[in-house]
Specification:
single chain, 443 residues, Enolase-like, domain 1, TIM Barrel, five-stranded parallel beta sheet, 17 helices, alpha/beta, three-stranded antiparallel beta sheet, Mandelate_racemase_N_dom
Length: 443
């Protein structure tokens, strides 16, 4: 029985100085410090359980998300957890439809990132009280209850509540076998850790070699800053991994539409499965034009990590603008909104390959994609989940990768909880790590 009144909400600005090693660097984000607005929910329940939620940021600006979380706090404080999850759609809409706060959204940008952090904490607490990992909480829900967590506003022209229920009902067939398959073999992953744009060739070669030894067969390379450099680096990676293994490319929104087509035509010789975020994440028709132009070359378009909300995904699907859909556990409005996107992707038969390049994103999104396979898509065709090998040591329940696959988490919750010492040391600007760095920089 879900219970307890939310008695406290705290939020922390937690940053890791990843820019010092070039980790996470790409054509648009050259010096990211992987960071999070980290929310902790406490209730008056006797079990003493807490809910932990994160949203992912890149350093500067995390303090703005923290402010937005505090602005949303009155919607959560003194609410009964049972009432929240009993009318989750209503609670989601309350958070996203605050008559004043929505003006700085609506359902996009900082206020939506803050919404994700708060809701991620609620889901973590719900799963913990039920004693299940989040993926299992979702898998065990009956279709009607699951659908009641989703706000269908603005997407009913593509997906109605009844259609969503029907998709879930049809996917009941073989569900038990698919759950057993996940527990035995895990969900297929690909690695981005080898080829960040800021890495020198020696590092790239070393990491590629190690990944191959560890059984990785799918690799992603960052591109978009300099064409000749891209050609050289893509050739290096393709030669190392061989012709049979899968290669993807990611431009992180660097190009205009004609430039994307021209650039990728020149990189086509390296046989990429997809080009990710070739242009502005808001340009639906631009993505559609690129997708159409690159189809004859056998290159698909992938996007989603910076899609504001379910409405953008709806339009991308309607416009046939993507071949691979990339949900993000912290960009959209938590599990609630991601559920609507997974169901729309199923209706359009577009494979979901989640984004997970960031602190905690692997920990969270593994739950969503494992649920998707068991209860929605029922397919692994052209599907894989991103993996980056950074900062897992700071989490209480880190991801477990075996033979290039995510093994389903066994611990109750959403895997969002960070180690207390890590939070304390990396809190900005007063944590020990940042005190030393800022002092060294003379700030």
């Amino acid at each position: 029985m879900v219970h307890g009144r939310v008695s406290r909400l705290s939020v922390h600005d937690v940053r890791f100085p990843t820019s010092l090693g070039g980790h996470g660097s790409d054509a648009m984000h050259t010096d990211p410090d992987y960071s999070a607005a980290y929310v902790v929910l406490e209730t008056d329940a006797e079990d003493g359980l807490k809910g932990y939620g994160i949203t992912f940021t890149l350093g500067r600006g995390t303090e703005v998300v923290v402010c937005a979380v505090n602005a949303l706090a009155p919607h959560v404080l003194n609410k009964d957890l049972g009432d929240i999850v009993g009318d989750f759609r209503g609670f989601y809409r309350q958070l996203t439809s605050d008559g004043q706060l929505r003006w700085i959204g609506p359902e996009k940008g900082v206020v939506h990132l803050a919404t994700a952090a708060v809701l991620n904490a609620v889901w973590d607490l719900w799963a913990k009280q039920e004693g299940k990992p989040l993926w299992k909480l979702l898998v065990d829900m009956d279709p009607r209850t699951l659908v009641s967590c989703i706000d269908f506003r603005y997407i009913t022209d593509v997906l109605t509540e009844e259609e969503a229920c029907e998709i879930l009902r049809q996917s009941q067939v073989g569900k038990k076998e698919r759950e057993e398959q996940m527990l035995a073999h895990g969900y297929p992953a690909y690695t981005t850790s080898c080829a960040w744009l800021g890495y020198p060739d020696a590092t790239l070669k070393q990491l590629c070699s190690e990944a191959l030894k560890d059984g990785w067969t799918r690799f992603k390379v960052k591109v978009g800053a300099d064409l000749q450099d891209d050609i050289r680096r893509c050739r290096l990676v393709r030669n190392m991994i061989g012709p049979e293994k899968t290669l993807m490319m990611d431009a992180n929104q660097r190009w205009d539409v004609p430039e994307a087509v021209e650039w990728m035509t020149k990189l086509a010789e390296f046989k990429p499965l997809w080009i990710e975020e070739p242009t502005s994440p808001d340009d639906i028709l631009g993505h559609a034009a690129i997708s159409k132009a690159l189809a004859p070359l056998g290159i698909g378009v992938a996007t989603g990590e910076q899609c504001h909300n379910r409405v953008i995904f709806k339009q991308l699907l309607q416009a046939k603008a993507l071949k691979f859909l990339q949900i993000d556990s912290c960009r959209l409005g938590s599990v609630n909104e991601n559920l609507s996107v997974l169901l729309m992707a199923k209706k359009f038969e577009i494979p979901v390959c989640p984004h997970a390049g960031g602190v905690g994103l692997c920990e969270l999104v593994q739950h969503l994609i494992i649920f998707d396979f068991i209860s929605v898509s029922a397919s692994l065709q052209d599907r894989m989940c991103e993996y980056v090998d950074h900062l897992h040591e700071h989490f209480k329940y880190p991801v477990l990768i075996r033979e290039a696959a995510y093994l389903p988490p066994k611990d109750a919750g959403y895997s969002t909880e960070m180690k207390e010492d890590s939070v304390k040391r990396h809190r900005y600007p007063d944590g020990e790590v940042w005190k030393k760095l800022l002092s060294a920089q003379g700030n």
